[in-house]
Amino acid sequence: MSWAWQALRALRLRLLGPAKELVGTDQFGNKYYRVPKHETRAGQIIQERRFVEAINRQAYQYEMGDFPIEWEAWIRKKRNDPPTIEEILKNENYREEMKQKIKDVSEKDKLLQAKEYKEGLVAEPAHTQVKGHASAPYYAKKEPSQDPTSTANTFQPGSWMPPGSGSSHNK
């Protein structure tokens, strides 16, 4: 490289900073980049930056699972080296195997519970019926009352005591 190109490259690095480097792509087509650690014209050190250019350009289009877990760990600097396609596929296969094993165990557990209920070894869970919400003023009543209720005529200040407190007051 000639000295002129080297001088232009050094000037560009000083003025604009280093260019982004393509590190890899995932199976969805997202591209992952890094900008290496560099020093600005003022002498400030800028740490390495990692980012993704996603296929879905609008933020509202992102969903859980758009980025593989391995790439997300790399972007968040939880790992130093970017993942390989083989690693991503291996981990994806492992997750699928675990999902199948969980499904199988869950089905076996349901069958065992049904057998135990049938044989009378275990009592079936009680089914409760909720009539309203506890914070509603008409909780557990058939319908809200239109009649106002008040204790204004019978209320005596200082007459109410918390249960178990006896006649002593907290001092």
Give the percentage of residues in beta strands: 5-15%
Roughly how many Å is the radius of gyration? 33 Å
The secondary-structure class comes to: alpha+beta
For the biggest sheet, the summary is: 3 strands, antiparallel
**Secondary structure tally, helices:** 3
Strand order of the largest sheet: 1-2-5
Number of strand elements: 5
Shape: flat
Mean pLDDT: 79
Low-confidence stretches: none
Helix content: 25-40%
Q: What gap, in angstroms, lies between the N and C termini? A: 87 Å
Descriptive notes:
- The chain has 171 residues and is an alpha+beta fold.
- It is flat, with a radius of gyration of 33 Å.
- The strands form two sheets. It has a three-stranded antiparallel sheet with strand order 1-2-5, with helices on one face. A two-stranded antiparallel ribbon has the order 3-4.
- A hairpin with a 5-residue loop joins β3 (38-39) and β4 (45-46).
- It is built from three helices and five strands; from the N terminus they run αβββββαα.
- The relative contact order is 0.06.
Short overview:
This protein is of the alpha+beta class.
Give the helix/strand layout.
Elements: H1 3-16, E1 21-25, E2 31-35, E3 38-39, E4 45-46, E5 49-53, H2 69-75, H3 85-119
Antiparallel strand pairs: 1-2, 2-5, 3-4
Name the descriptors.
171 residues; three-stranded antiparallel β-sheet; alpha+beta; two-stranded antiparallel sheet; flat; 3 helices
